[in-house]
Every structure is written in structure tokens, then in C-alpha cells.
């Protein structure tokens, strides 16, 4: 297992470096890294520090966050099909962003769009808490999440439907596909602190998620407080997924596929799967973000499209393997 | 350790299912909880553990959750193993309430002892979900043993097991009580309960109908009142065989 963590960490480090070194301006490697470290006002340090670095950091953080929350929700719901979007926060964040584009607010200030998305995510959390109630179980949480997702989806469709001109609709559709292009350090400072707090909260559920392997009653009898666990998971997921959607758009499949792929490698223990999935998610998203810049450099291939193209067949393969293994 | 329940009442979905049950279960007893389906056996155990809302007092439920988990291990009726973990990792889950969390030397000793006691050595590295129902049950009991508590509360531990596994499970529980633990288990097989338990508690409609030795509790009138059945008794060298008719 230690080998897996070393390999994943090395992969993340290599892909982070690759992300820093990939871009339309074909910059030489040693100079790029020197410029990144030294800084200055010349074009090279500016490109490295203000274009490539935020993109790489966000790729790492968003990927890690999606992998981590996917693994945590799967552990909590004891369902390998759970994913970060399940509780409706990403849908509400997307709705907030879409409204910002529609109303022209996104053009007013550079951070208006992510802030609107965060507001959407916060409203989503409020709705989730109100719907799931203080004593609700995991099923109530899923149902509330599905209802909020449906509501957010309907709202997004309505905004698209009523969009005043095709350009606004176009912009909304492209934003929804997810991307890390043209993000600044402002985006990093906006997203990173809540995501780190969310990661701390989510990682603190590891032992409780292990205990849940035996079911809710057995876990409770082993000292796990069900309301406290749910609170930490909802807050942790919202603090990660809200900002992640705000700065990167809707990126699917990472939180679903990564825990699936890594589960056999950690002996299926949720406590080990959480950090492994964070590393795996970061690696996948960094790789995908490098790929969108390399595959069709002249066309703006969206990150969410690529993760879906890679993720869906991978998921089909896993279903096939599970079926042929005789399990459901 | 003594488990004291006093005036324990439980209401589920606005329906009262347990009415002021008062019991004292001292260490060294294997108490069999018998009674028809819906008599309140599971509710009694869950309330005693503080897992569901109740009125009255339970000496266990008043403890903080983490200390309670070091006093009593619980085997719920639903034998759930959500992920394909190895038998060893499954048993190690029993150490979650303890400071080492499964990694300390003390944890290793408890895990190894539980695996050895349940005869799971050959399955140690196997995936628990791939084992037979009886083997999975043994692994889950080993998990409870690894929790290393003075009290064990088991909800229908022998349901769904073959006769040999049933005997092995009840012998183990009897031995655990003889070692000084308090063991409370709900059991539907009256004959096995009579043979292995040191004391029986008969629940009916949320009330304790009888409490004492097998002879005192498994009386014709009480069984007729609780289950609506009569029984035939055959005395064997191993204890009474009880056949509902």
C-alpha cells in the first residue's frame, strides 16, 4: 500500500510539472522553472506565475477534491455509484454561475462568476440541510440531493431557454463543460482556503467511514455519532465541491471513477481510499488538463468533456469486470 | 460489569414497543432474550446501547459514545459487510473505539487473538465477502471479540446458521460469559436457548413476562401467552429438547 501512495504522489508531482510546462507558448523547461521561482516583470515569469501556475494548482486542487469527496460519499452511502455531484451542491453552484453569465454580472468583475457560483453552492447547502433534517439518515440525504440537483438542472435549463442571445447561451454551455483555462491566482485564493478546510473535515471522517463498513447500527455502537458524521461530510463536500465548480465548472466522472479504480489497491478500506483517491483525482485531472492542451491545441477542448470521454469507457470496463467476476 | 436497565420504554413511529423494562444483567451471565417477533427484543438491545431514543435509564447508554464502545460490543441483526475488505481488516474494525485505532501492539494482540479464537487463521487474507454465510458470521463475531469489551450484545446471532455453526456460536457465548463477561443475545430457538443460556428473559408486547432459569421461563402457560403455542419437552442428557407444536 505504501508503494501505491509513493507511485501516486510521484505521478501527481510529475503531472503538476507537466502542467506547468505545457502551453501554447512553447517555453524551454529550465528557463520556465527558473522564471517561475525567480519572478519578475518579463513575459516569461508573468506567463509562468500568472497563467500556468494557477492552472496547475487548480488542476491539482480540483482533481484532489473531487477524488476525495467521491470516495467519502461512496464510503458514507456504502454505494460505489455515489459521486460528489450527488448532494446537489455542484448543480447549485453551476446554476449560480450560469445566472451570473446570463445577467452580465460575470463581465462586471473578474471574480463575479465564481462568487455567484459560491452563493449558489451556499444556497444548495441551506436547502440540503432544510430538506434532509437534523436526524435524517443517508437515504434522506440522497433524496434531498437528487431533488436539489433536479431543481438546479431545471433552473439552468430555464436560464438557457430564456437567454437573450445565442452568444450568452453559447458561453453558458461552454462554461458548463468545465475548464481550467485562463484562471488567475485570484481564483486560487478564492477556492483554495475553503477547499483545504473541506479536505480537513472530510479526512476527519476516515475512522467513522471504516466503521460504517459494518452498517449504521454497528458503527454507531462503535462510537460513531451519525449526525456529527453527516454534518462533517456535508460541510466537507460542500466546501470542496462548491469552490471547485465555481472555478472549474462542472467536471464529472473524476469523483466516481477514481475511488472505483483505486478501491482494490487499498484493500477496500475507506480510510485508505480517501487519501488515495485525492491523489488519484489530482493525477487524473492534471493529466486531462495537459491533454486538452496537447490533443487539439488550436481548438478549445473542454476539460469536463475529456474527463467524460476518458471516464465513461473506464467505468464501462469496470462494470464489465464486476459482472464477469460474478458480483452485482 | 453490570448492565442496569430501569423503566426502559421505547416508542417507534408513535407506537410504544417497550414498556418500562427493568433488568439487571451481572457479569458472568449469558442472558437469552426470547419472545415473539415484534415483542421488543431488538428495541430493548438498541435502547440499552443508546442507539435509539428511549425513556428510562440504561447504565450503558449514559456513558459517552466512545467509552460506551469500550464497554459493549454489538452484533446487529443485519450482518452487513459493505466493502470487499479482508477478514483481517474486518476484524481490525473492532479496534476503532480504542486509541491505537487498529495499529498499536495492543491492537495486533487483540486482533490475532480474535482471529485465532474464531478459527479464522486460514481465511485471514481472504476477502470477507467471498466467504460462506457461516464464515462471515464468524468473522463478524471475531470483530466484536477484537473490540475487547466486558459486555457483548448480539441480536439473533444464530439466525441463518447451520446446526453446527449455531452450536459453535452458543458455546462461544457461554464461554465468554464464564470468563466474566456479560452476554445478552436474542434467540428464537427455545431449546438451544434453554441449553446454553444461564438465564432467560421472555419479552411479550414490550413487557418482561418472565425472567429466570429455563424451567421458570419456559412454562406452558407463559409460552402460550407469549407465542400462542404449546410445546413438547423431551429431556436429553444434553438438556431439554423443546418442540413447538
Automatic annotation (TrEMBL), chain A:
InterPro entries: ABC_BtuC-like (IPR037294), ABC_transptr_permease_BtuC (IPR000522). It is found in: Cell membrane. It is a multi-pass membrane protein. Gene3D superfamilies: ABC transporter involved in vitamin B12 uptake, BtuC. It comes from the Bacteria. CDD domains: TM_ABC_iron-siderophores_like (cd06550). This is FecCD family ABC transporter permease. The lineage of its organism: Bacteria, Pseudomonadati, Pseudomonadota, Alphaproteobacteria, Rhodobacterales.
Amino acid at each position: 500500500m505504501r508503494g501505491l501512495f509513493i507511485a501516486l504522489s510521484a505521478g501527481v508531482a510529475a503531472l503538476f510539472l507537466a502542467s506547468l510546462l505545457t502551453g501554447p507558448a512553447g517555453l524551454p523547461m529550465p528557463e520556465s522553472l527558473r522564471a517561475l521561482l525567480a519572478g519578475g516583470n518579463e513575459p516569461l515569469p508573468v506567463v509562468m506565475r500568472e497563467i500556468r501556475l494557477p492552472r496547475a494548482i487548480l488542476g491539482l486542487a480540483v482533481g484532489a477534491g473531487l477524488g476525495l469527496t467521491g470516495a467519502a460519499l461512496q464510503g458514507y452511502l456504502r454505494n460505489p455509484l455515489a459521486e460528489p455531484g450527488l448532494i446537489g451542491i455542484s448543480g447549485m453552484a453551476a446554476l449560480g454561475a450560469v445566472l451570473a453569465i446570463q445577467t452580465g454580472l460575470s463581465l462586471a468583475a473578474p471574480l463575479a462568476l465564481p462568487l455567484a457560483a459560491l452563493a449558489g453552492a451556499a444556497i444548495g447547502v441551506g436547502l440540503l440541510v432544510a430538506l434532509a433534517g437534523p436526524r435524517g439518515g443517508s437515504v434522506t440525504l440522497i433524496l434531498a440531493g437528487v431533488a436539489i440537483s433536479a431543481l438546479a438542472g431545471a433552473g439552468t435549463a430555464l436560464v438557457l431557454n430564456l437567454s437573450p442571445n445565442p452568444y450568452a447561451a453559447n458561453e453558458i454551455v461552454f462554461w458548463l463543460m468545465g475548464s481550467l483555462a485562463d484562471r488567475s491566482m485570484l481564483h486560487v485564493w478564492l477556492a483554495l482556503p475553503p477547499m483545504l478546510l473541506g479536505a480537513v473535515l472530510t479526512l476527519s471522517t476516515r475512522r467513522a467511514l471504516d466503521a460504517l463498513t459494518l452498517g449504521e447500527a454497528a458503527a454507531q455502537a462503535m462510537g460513531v455519532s451519525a449526525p456529527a458524521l453527516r454534518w462533517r461530510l456535508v460541510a466537507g463536500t460542500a466546501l470542496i465541491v462548491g469552490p471547485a465548480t465555481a472555478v472549474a465548472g462542472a467536471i464529472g466522472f473524476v469523483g466516481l471513477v477514481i475511488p472505483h479504480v483505486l478501491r482494490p489497491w487499498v484493500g477496500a478500506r475507506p480510510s485508505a481510499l480517501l487519501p488515495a483517491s485525492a491523489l488519484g483525482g489530482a493525477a487524473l485531472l492534471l493529466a486531462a488538463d495537459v491533454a486538452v492542451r496537447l490533443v487539439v491545441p488550436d481548438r478549445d477542448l473542454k476539460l469536463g468533456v475529456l474527463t467524460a470521454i476518458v471516464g465513461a469507457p473506464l467505468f464501462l470496463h469496470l462494470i464489465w469486470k464486476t459482472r464477469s467476476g460474478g458480483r452485482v | 460489569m453490570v448492565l442496569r436497565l430501569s423503566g426502559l420504554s421505547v416508542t417507534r413511529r408513535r407506537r410504544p414497543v417497550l414498556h418500562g423494562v427493568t433488568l439487571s444483567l451481572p457479569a458472568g451471565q449469558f442472558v437469552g432474550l426470547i419472545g415473539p417477533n415484534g415483542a421488543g427484543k431488538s428495541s430493548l438491545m438498541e435502547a440499552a446501547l443508546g442507539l435509539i431514543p428511549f425513556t428510562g435509564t440504561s447504565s450503558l447508554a449514559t456513558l459517552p459514545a466512545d467509552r460506551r464502545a469500550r464497554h459493549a460490543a454489538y452484533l446487529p441483526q443485519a450482518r452487513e459487510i459493505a466493502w470487499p475488505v479482508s477478514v483481517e481488516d474486518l476484524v481490525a474494525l473492532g479496534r476503532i473505539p480504542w486509541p491505537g485505532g487498529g495499529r498499536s501492539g495492543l491492537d495486533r494482540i487483540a486482533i490475532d487473538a480474535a482471529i485465532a479464537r474464531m478459527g479464522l487463521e486460514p481465511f485471514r487474507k481472504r476477502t470477507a465477502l467471498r466467504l460462506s454465510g457461516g464464515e462471515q458470521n464468524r468473522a463478524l463475531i471475531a470483530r466484536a471479540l477484537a473490540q475487547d469489551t466486558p459486555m457483548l450484545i448480539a441480536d439473533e446471532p444464530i439466525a441463518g446458521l447451520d446446526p453446527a455453526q449455531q452450536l459453535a456460536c452458543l458455546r462461544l457465548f457461554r464461554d465468554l460469559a464464564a470468563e466474566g463477561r456479560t452476554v445478552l443475545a436474542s434467540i428464537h430457538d427455545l431449546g438451544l436457548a434453554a441449553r446454553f443460556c444461564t438465564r432467560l428473559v421472555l419479552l411479550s408486547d414490550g413487557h418482561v413476562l418472565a425472567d429466570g432459569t429455563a424451567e421458570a421461563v419456559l412454562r406452558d402457560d407463559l409460552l402460550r401467552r407469549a407465542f400462542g403455542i404449546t410445546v413438547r419437552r423431551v429431556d436429553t442428557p444434553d438438556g431439554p429438547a423443546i418442540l413447538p407444536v
